[in-house]
Amino acid sequence: MQISPGMVAVVTGAGSGIGRALAEKAAQSGMRIVAADIEQPRLDDTVASLGQLGAEAIGVRTDVSVEDDVMRLADAAYAEFGAVNLLCNNAGVFSGGLMWERTMADWKWAMGVNLDGLIHAVRAFVPRMLEAETPSHIVNTASMGGLVTGAYSGPYFTSKFAAVGLTECLAHDLRTTGKNVSASVLVPSLINTNIGTSGRNRQERWVDRGREPAPDVEFVEAMLTESTAAGMAPTEVAVLVFDAVEAGNFWIPTQPSYHDQIRARHDDMQELRHPAPAQLD
Ligand SMILES: NC(=O)c1ccc[n+]([C@@H]2O[C@H](COP(=O)([O-])OP(=O)(O)OC[C@H]3O[C@@H](n4cnc5c(N)ncnc54)[C@H](O)[C@@H]3O)[C@@H](O)[C@H]2O)c1
User: Fold this and answer.
1) Residues having CB within 6 Å of any atom of ligand 1
2) What are phi and psi of 218, to 5 degrees?
3) For residue 280, is it within any domain?
4) Which protein residue has the closest C-alpha to ligand 1 atom 40?
5) Which of 114, 191, 254 to mutate to test the pocket of ligand 1 (most atoms within 8 A of CB)?
6) How many A from CA of 221 to the centre of ligand 1?
7) Which atom of ligand 1 is nearest to the CA of 113?
8) Annotated active-site positions, please?
9) How far away, in angstroms, is 114 Cα from ligand 1 center?
10) Is the pTM higher than 0.85?
């Protein structure tokens, strides 16, 4: 899809990291923007920054794990701007640690935000996009953790594999319509964002009251915080995403290691070997 000034972008998780960079890139491209996030102060900050970039923008506080919230987000976008051309389903959280030590709340949080959030958005936005007959494109943020696996990150990687599968199925379904609506999937490696402190936005219904801090969780979160701090800048990711949308690419990797890692994974599958651990860089 060619992106042109006046088109409308909706970005979830726009209060921080990759989402904020995508919203700012949309502003720099002359788009009108609906920014959504669960964290109101950071969302307000993003909307202010979009205004400073000269964009028309609104902020809609949204918990993507809640279907009604996402329906309200779509209502707000169509009421304010009358169209949605680019939908970036980017909100996400990291929930890790040894799988068997995780509570159902840990699992439900990861799946609720990283998978249900996408399902809600497909149901809320796609019918309106198909009806509108204007070019529209959906970018779902998954992860390299949706293509390769490793230890200490079961809930996160599982939710991201589901995000990749969902987006492939979505692309197939959209093709059957013959309409100008398409989808792609962003599969980043390490990006310098606040993902290591995802727990700051964990919903009350998924907090395990009275649980002692778990050493396996503390270990993997510290490792993630340290490794993402040395990662790629979110602004570079936003450029890759906009280029990929314009090129019509389905897969949007961020680092060259993507190619070696998926090749190695497929070799392991062909040879029936145990999967090699992800090399996140
Ligand atoms: N940073 C990385 O290394 C990396 C790598 C691969 C994939 N990703 C993915 O990129 C996406 C963006 O994450 P990021 O790295 O920018 O982290 P981030 O924490 O900086 O930003 C995530 C944003 O999502 C928001 N959010 C969290 N739960 C939400 C909810 N229920 N509803 C709405 N908003 C919610 C947060 O408030 C935050 O503003 C996520 O899907 C993440 O899984 C990140």
Assistant:
1) 12-13, 15-19, 37-39, 42, 62-65, 90-93, 113, 141, 143, 188, 190-191, 193-195, 198, 201, 228, 231
2) -60, -40
3) no
4) 92
5) 191
6) 14
7) 31
8) 156
9) 9
10) yes
pLDDT the model gives residue 223: 95
Q: What is the mean pLDDT of each run of 10 residues along the chain (281 residues)?
A: 98 99 98 98 98 98 98 98 98 97 97 99 98 96 98 97 99 98 98 97 94 92 96 98 98 97 98 94 88
Nearest 5°: phi and psi at 159?
A: -65, -35
| Among candidate residues 90, 111, 73, the one with its CA nearest the CA of residue 14 | 90
> Rounded to whole angstroms, how far apart are CA atoms 261 and 109?
28
Residue pLDDT, tens place only, 151-161: 999 999 999 99
If you measure from the C-alpha of residue 193 to the centroid of ligand 1, how many angstroms do you get, rounded to a whole number?
8
Which residue range(s) make up the domain with 59? Answer: 8-270
Length of the chain: 281
Give the pLDDT score at 168.
98
Q: Does any domain span residue 206?
A: yes
The CATH code of the domain that includes 172 is: 3.40.50.720
How many domains in the chain? 1
Retrieve residue 203's tokens.
């919903």
**Of ligand 1's atoms, which has the minimum distance to the CA of residue 145?**
6
- Provide the pLDDT for residue 213: 83
3-state SS, one letter per residue, for 10-33: EEECCCCHHHHHHHHHHHHCCCEE
82-99 confidence digits (pLDDT tens):
999 999 999 999 999 999
Place of tokens 């809930």: 155
Nearest-angstrom CA–CA distance, 222 and 213 = 13
Helix H or strand E encompassing 76: helix 67-81
